[in-house]
Amino acid sequence: xxxxxxxxxxxxxxxxxxxxxxxxxxxxxxxxxxxxxxxxxxxxxxxxxxxxxxxxxxxxxxxxxxxxxxxxxxxxxxxxxxxxxxxxxxxxxxxxxxxxxxxxxxxxxxxxxxxxxxxxxxxxxxxxxxxxxxxxxxxxxxxxxxxxxxxxxxxxxxxxxxxxxxxxxxxxxxxxxxxxxxxxxxxxxxxxxxxxxxxxxxxxxxxxxxxxxxxxxxxxxxxxxxxxxxxxxxxxxxxxxxxxxxxxxxxxxxxxxxxxxxxxxxxxxxxxxxxxxxxxxxxxxxxxxxxxxxxxxxxxxxxxxxxxxxxxxxx
Length: 315
Known about the structure:
Elements: H1 3-30, H2 35-40, H3 46-56, H4 62-74, H5 88-123, H6 128-142, H7 145-159, H8 175-209, H9 212-219, H10 224-254, H11 256-261, H12 267-276, H13 280-308
Helix pairs in contact: 1-13, 5-6, 5-8, 5-10, 6-8, 7-8, 8-10, 9-10, 10-13, 12-13
């Protein structure tokens, strides 16, 4: 393992996190609306608003505000919410669990659909299964997640009463109830993820199945199962792992709509509420946590390449 490469990737991850937080911090300074005015209400006097701005440090230069926030964030102090006065860090910790659970279960749903469909479609190109798989992937990419979520709520919750339309139960309290609550939002997000993964798995497998070493393995008389699993799939995993890593990051940062539709208490819904209420400390803390999670996933995927194919050399 090249430790110099790992150090470079960690340094790049830190730079990405700093860049994301800086851009978001700058955008929040440009967005119309005064957070002090939002906290005190539209009828507060200008003197009261100015006093609150001074107490919150909003009257300081932008760079000074950012450096001060960053120094506190490194120590785990993201400040206090402007609206409820509570510390931001505990709110982020309480929302990270549900978001992580939703992203992981959605990924599992997607893989459970995409892997068999993509593999069979690649092994039988042009067949009826391949046509259905292609149609499925097109529908999944085209259908908005909020519309699919609403349809699932109407049919599976209101009409069939199979799953609750909203709510959350921690997994350590009741596993069965947790699964009933997470099924609909996870399937909604996982269906879109499965559609994208199916196309990439099919494409990656088709490229490998046409390679010379696969044809040689078949010519040697190896069983088709051994050819597919030991030769084709193993060499296609590099591309497959890449798209899976991208899907994980997309699920972490893109389930906001799903969380809103199903009233899921995750980071996405928390960030949306922070934007609507101009709660800058809460929004900045959420962005910081999501940026760290996404960069760590990307780093893990990069290091996983070496385990999948030792021939890869890190430069």
